[in-house]
TrEMBL record:
It comes from Chlorogloeopsis fritschii PCC 6912. PANTHER family: ACETYLTRANSFERASE. The keyword Transferase applies. Residues 39-191 form the N-acetyltransferase domain. GO terms for molecular function: acyltransferase activity, transferring groups other than amino-acyl groups. Keywords: Transferase. This is Acetyltransferase. SUPFAM superfamilies: Acyl-CoA N-acyltransferases (Nat).
Length: 191
């Protein structure tokens, strides 16, 4: 058994601290909290939403429709991998973070990105939300019957490495992104 996997008491403790924190599918109900989170990332110099910023601010319904299309596995989308998006919400009003699950891997996803990506808004970091977000996202990945998932993180992102390890991540190897030269750590988690 992986020593870094949270034991039952650690999971129970984390879940008790996160009682009002849930993983939801994106909806118009969270348009303002989502925009607040996007703005916070920008204020901290992070660009997770740079490419969709305009759509999020001026046509949120179109943004949601795009997320729904991305999650579908249809003949029209044969060249792309379905991606399910989830939002971590506290007290039914504050967006804490987001996660995405790639339903399958291309060779590029396998080498550099993995099945799951996640991020926590800057002011909510180092409070256990990342660990909880990944835990809940892994539960969603089980529903896709993936068997195991691959996760990656920047080698310098010690916090993300710890989050992955706490959720059962077993280090596989490192690879270097050819475009940026960034070293990526690769982990596997059995579901």
């Amino acid at each position: 058994m992986n020593q870094s996997l949270m034991n039952n008491s650690e999971v129970a403790h984390l879940n008790s601290r996160m009682q009002n924190v849930v993983l939801v599918e994106p909806s118009t109900k969270f348009a303002k909290p989502f925009l607040d989170m996007v703005n916070e990332f920008e204020q901290f110099g992070e660009d997770q939403y740079r490419t969709v910023r305009y759509m999020v601010e001026y046509n949120f319904s179109a943004y949601l429709a795009r997320l729904i299309r991305q999650s579908q596995d249809s003949e029209q989308r044969q060249q792309t991998v379905p991606i399910s998006t989830y939002w971590l919400v506290k007290d039914d009003s504050l967006l804490i973070g987001a996660s995405k699950i790639h339903h399958r891997l291309t060779s590029r996803l396998r080498q550099y990105y993995g099945h799951i990506s996640y991020h926590i808004r800057p002011t909510a970091r180092q409070k256990g939300y990342g660990t909880h977000l990944l835990f809940l996202t892994l539960e969603k990945a089980k529903l896709l019957e993936l068997g195991e998932v691959l996760l990656t993180c920047n080698a310098e992102n010690i916090a993300s490495s710890r989050i992955i390890q706490k959720n059962g991540g077993v280090f596989q190897n490192e690879s270097v992104m050819p475009t940026s030269g960034t070293t990526i750590k690769r982990y596997r988690i059995a579901l």
